[in-house]
User: What shape does this take?
Amino acid sequence: MTDLRNKIVLVTGASSGIGESCARRFAKVGARLILAARRLDRLKKIAEKLGADCHLLNLDVQNREEVEESISALPADWSAIDILVNNAGLSRNLAKLHEGNIDGWEDMINTNIKGLLYVSRAVIPGMVKRGSGHVINIGSIAGREVYPNGNVYCATKHAVDALTKGMRIDLVESPVRVTTVDPGLVETEFSQVRFYGDKERASTVYQGFKPLTGADVAESVVWAASQPQHVTIAEILILPTAQASATSVNKSIG
Assistant: This one.
């Protein structure tokens, strides 16, 4: 297994949910953490509790110039990123395509696709030059299946799946590894963001069964990163036991 102590791990969207859980889990194995998110106040509170060496980036992955400047301006002792967790992502609303909110589409495309591309483009060249590194993209079951009214969100996560496979092909001549971790239903702020802060509506998504937690997903992320250098965990699909597919969930087992 790969020793992750003192490895530099960049986690985007680290201020909550899966990103925050990844930060906590990597901290437990002694990694050094670059935590990136728009909510710097949240990052500061998280970093204070981690007991790990942290560098914070107040970063909106949708902003190409901001991404390029933030990565290029990293202090020398933080610049050799070993593991990139492309976690920043969101969903907006549930609606038929012809009734969709175009501003919501832009949010999803700019974060889930363009944001991942901007950060990857800024970080991967250094990995290739150093001859080591691991990119872990947080995908979704929505990148494998399309569900009703999830059209554009599913399209963005299908794009993440395609980009992950493309990265793996493009990097096959280097030792840099590429993984996608695709969760099913995870109880985080995801649904609150999707429904623009409507907590009551968001809570109904997870009623009647036990969903995944951010910690469940983080465990898979760190496990993939911990594999020996000659082993790439290409894909992980992680579901709550009550879920069989994007649209098949047993809400009667508690």
About this structure: The mean pLDDT is 96. The chain has one domain: 8-238.
